[in-house]
Design goal:
16% strand, alpha/beta, seven-stranded mixed sheet, four-stranded antiparallel sheet
Length: 350
């Protein structure tokens, strides 16, 4: 896998319409922009190293004790720090899934096994993973819903996985960065299991829902104080900038933005999926804020779209996928129409 091939390489394509990065189609909330503008005069000082106000806001929003919350410089930062803190000898993750799990585990000297997801199952996780869970593992990293497939884990199966991990003394990290985009997000989160399962870590970020990718802000939830302390010990001081803390507090105080984003994503996801299917593209999973699809007609669809000023995410560098698979973010209706027009021109010769 080429680690450089993440979505959002707009610096190399500054004028392109970017469907490769799956953040909110509504952009940075106006409330956050105003809060950032108003805080510029404070940026000459150090940020709160304990993120006290932000931690309190997250705890209130997620309904957990503040002691269970730990903030970081984006979700990727926390993935690496969990791996460094726990020092697992052997771990399990999925294939395909977000590649930074593999890189973080390798950087920590961990041997990683991969549980394959299959097209015949629409890349959904099945109970076959339960047979892979044993005391020989120290850590399991799951993405729910999975990236790049957008396929959530069945709630009952997820709790069976959690229970078996607990029985086998395995730490389970569940990356829920895309949970807010699901139609019923509260039915898919494991936040309610934290108190009963000290082996559980839930990962969240402001990156996707609030379009704060450039500000870098994520957090984890865990009821085990020893885990929180170990993660803290692996971080540099002032790891979360003052602008990021300000932005996070403002985002959580905005009572309307997240509901508007979910409404737009739900409507546009349905529209875009229907249009892709009309073009004989096989849409799989795709229940988050992006479409995961297979194109048998050509294997250079991303290059052909790039010639037309549009970026999508080729998925051939994910474990278990090839050059026929792609991911495209759900954006505004006008932007989605432009993508459909370009795809029609390429695939139908319109």
């Amino acid at each position: 896998m080429d680690r450089q091939l993440h979505g959002g390489d707009t610096y190399g394509h500054p004028s392109a319409l970017d469907f490769s990065s799956n953040t909110s189609p509504l952009g940075l909330p106006e409330s956050v922009q105003k809060a950032l503008a108003g805080s510029v005069g404070d940026w000459d000082g150090y940020p709160d190293p304990l993120c006290r106000d932000l931690t309190a806001a997250i705890a209130a929003a997620d309904g957990v004790p503040a002691a269970w919350v730990h903030c970081g410089n984006g979700a990727a930062d926390l993935i690496f720090r969990v791996a460094q803190a726990l020092k697992p000898r052997r771990a399990l993750t999925l294939a395909p899934t977000f590649s930074e799990y593999e890189y973080a585990l390798a950087a920590a000297g961990c041997e990683t096994a991969f549980h394959p997801l299959h097209e015949k199952d629409n890349f959904a996780l099945t109970d076959t993973i339960l047979g892979k869970l044993s005391p020989a593992l120290d850590l399991v990293m799951l993405c729910n819903p999975n990236n790049p497939t957008g396929q959530p884990v069945d709630g009952e199966l997820l709790r069976r996985i959690l229970k078996k991990c607990a029985d086998c003394k395995i730490t389970l990290l569940v990356d829920e960065c895309f949970v807010p985009f699901l139609d019923e997000p509260e039915a898919h989160t494991l936040k309610g299991e934290l108190a009963a399962h000290k082996n559980l870590i839930v990962l969240r970020a402001f990156t996707k829902l609030y379009a704060m990718a450039g500000l870098r802000l994520g957090y984890l939830l865990c009821a085990n104080p020893e885990t929180i302390e170990a993660v803290c010990a692996c971080e540099p001081p002032w790891n979360v900038s003052l602008p990021a803390q300000t932005a996070g507090i403002a985002a959580l105080a905005d009572g309307e933005y997240d509901s508007r984003v979910r409404e737009v994503v739900k409507a546009e996801r349905k529209y875009l999926a229907g249009e892709l299917q009309k073009l004989d593209l096989r849409v799989l999973g795709s229940r988050a804020n992006y479409l995961f699809f297979k194109c048998n007609a050509c294997r250079d669809l991303d290059a052909l779209l790039e010639q037309r000023g549009i970026l999508i995410r080729p998925c051939g560098n994910f474990r278990g996928l090839d050059e026929r698979f792609y991911r495209a973010a759900v954006k505004t209706h006008a932007q989605n129409e432009r993508l459909v027009e370009a795809l029609t021109e390429i695939l139908k010769g319109a």
